Amino acid sequence: MSDPLIIAGKTYNSRLIVGTGKYASYQQNADAARAAGAEIVTVALRRVNLSDPGKEILTDFVKPDEFTYLPNTAGCYTADEAVRTLRLAREAGGWNLVKLEVLADQKTLYPNMPETLTAAKALIADGFEVMVYCSDDPVYAKMLEEAGCCAIMPLGSLIGSGLGIMNPVNIRLIVEQTRVPVIVDAGVGTPSDAAMAMELGCDGVLMNTAIAAAKDPILMASAMKHAVIAGREGYLAGRMPKKMYADPSSPLAGLI
Amino acid sequence: MQITLNGEPRQVNPGMTVAMLLEELSEATGRDPRGVAVERNLEIVPKSEHAFTVLEEGDRLELVQFVGGG
């Protein structure tokens, strides 16, 4: 069954986007990304390490010719910082597809939505394709879509929390109103969380810690791949209606 | 003359261009300078301008590249 994910006009076969943070090594990171079947990986932009040149660098392991790099703005708390960071990312990599996240405070890493919207508009005006990390507020999600974002990425729960999808009703509302891909970003802890996001009708899931912080990240990456596929197929297949009472699966006729 | 490179003071020769600085750093670290973005006094210096951008006293340079992140 061909069921591609299309973001900003580009086709992807995998609906699982993975991060490249918190792994024991970049080698493990690359192995996990492959086990997840991911085609897109998020990356951060930081100062070149001038004092320790022997240190491993991401691009030697998670190679940009194997994975689509999605530069993020993790650590940015204002629209100006985020725009500055992504302009540098475009200069470093040469591509326009980016993940915008503007955070509000260090304790929750909750998105600052007014700053996020301001940054999204500035980036889109500057030619970027913006996938946007956002709260699960359908009103702001609609504003971001109308501003021209190419993917709406509400949190399932707080970044790195592993609490799963805390507000499935809002996620569903966002899915129903949105014409561009909706990707749950943050909060997924287990394969069942990922499957749930997909069963709600999301177009994809983005995760980092759920894989990186598992006892066996490679095995968890594989589990997440299957969960996303299972959730997607379950959504497309259409679930049975819920009923209050039992309904026997074996025929009643011919009972001895 | 002195510039600030990634937040640290650094002495460079007058007349040095961005391209020359990247070359010097590349020789010192053994790293390919491709994939590094350069910002000078909060303005991006495109790769095509590296060879023509002469550093000046007090310049604040940021050299950035991709690292792992979620």
Short description:
With 256 residues, chain A is of the alpha/beta class. In chain A, 36% of the residues lie in helices and 16% in strands.
Description:
The complex is a heterodimer of chains A (256) and B (70). Chain A contains eight helices and ten strands. In chain A, the strands form four sheets. Chain A has a three-stranded parallel beta sheet. A three-stranded parallel beta sheet of chain A has the order 6-7-8, with helices on one face. Chain A has a two-stranded antiparallel ribbon with strand order 1-2. In chain A, helix 1 (26-35) runs parallel beside helix 8, helix 2 packs parallel to helix 3 (113-125) and helix 3 packs parallel to helix 4 (138-147). The model of chain A has no long low-confidence stretch (mean pLDDT 95). With 256 residues, chain A is an alpha/beta fold. Chain A has a single domain, classed as Aldolase class I (TIM Barrel), CATH 3.20.20. Chain B contains one helix and five strands, in the order ββαβββ. Chain B is of the alpha+beta class. Chain B has a single domain, classed as Ubiquitin-like (UB roll) (Roll), CATH 3.10.20.30. Chain B has one helix at residues 18-29, and strands spanning 2-5, 8-11, 37-40, 43-44, 60-68. The mean pLDDT of chain B is 90. The chains are: A alpha/beta (256), B alpha+beta (70). At the A-B interface, strand 4 and helix 2 of A face helix 1, strand 3 and strand 5 of B. Strand 4 (40-47) of chain A pairs antiparallel with strand 5 of chain B, so a sheet runs across the interface.
